[in-house]
Amino acid sequence: MKNVNVKTSLKAFFILIIVLSSTNTYAKMSVPEIVVKALYTRFPDAEDVIWKMYSSDQFIASFICREEEVHVFMSNDGTFIEINIQLNEENIPESIASQLNKIQNAVVFYVLDTTDASNFRCYRAKVKVSNRTYELIFDKKQNLISQRLMK
């Protein structure tokens, strides 16, 4: 029944990896050892991690883990701020897939499994309908709790 037509962004992710790895700013960036250790403790299967400085005291680690794209926001002391896992089509919860399939003429760009620093978990979907792009947010029980028009 999971027939969500998810437009994969793995190509975009790999292009991002190529661009970031060829940019001197990121090649010279030093990530604190405590941050790297915290990432690999939580995600021991992380492959080809790309680090980016998000702000003066935050980093983003982007990588593939168990064939899913992951983006982790971390503070410079190794604290996890937010984890976004882009779900493969087969890992999208059935009830969310069903709700997305009911939206006429929808193009689903991605569905993220998001957990923040306080362990609040939700699912976020980016969906295009009639030339308008929306972010849909589902709670951990997979009920639609919010939708907003994206710019």
Structure commentary:
- By secondary structure, the protein is α+β, with helices and mostly antiparallel strands.
- It has a single domain, classed as Nuclear Transport Factor 2, Chain: A (Roll).
- The protein has four helices and eight strands.
- It has an eight-stranded antiparallel beta sheet, sandwiched between helices.
Which secondary structure elements does this structure contain, and how are they paired or packed?
Layout: H1 10-21, H2 24-27, H3 33-42, E1 47-55, E2 58-65, E3 68-75, E4 80-86, H4 94-101, E5 106-116, E6 121-129, E7 132-139, E8 144-149
Antiparallel strand pairs: 1-2, 2-3, 3-4, 4-5, 5-6, 6-7, 7-8
What fraction of residues sit in β-strands?
35-45%
Q: What is the typical, i.e. mean, pLDDT?
A: 86
Low-confidence blocks of residues: 8-28
Number of strand segments: 8
Number of helical elements: 4
Number of domains: 1
Q: Structural class of the helices, strands and pairings?
A: alpha+beta
CATH third-tier fold name: Nuclear Transport Factor 2, Chain: A
Biggest sheet: strand arrangement: 1-2-3-4-5-6-7-8
CATH architecture verdict: Roll
**Largest sheet: number of strands, sense, barrel closure:** 8 strands, antiparallel
Give the helices and strands as they follow along the chain. Answer: HHHEEEEHEEEE
**Rg, nearest Å:** 16 Å
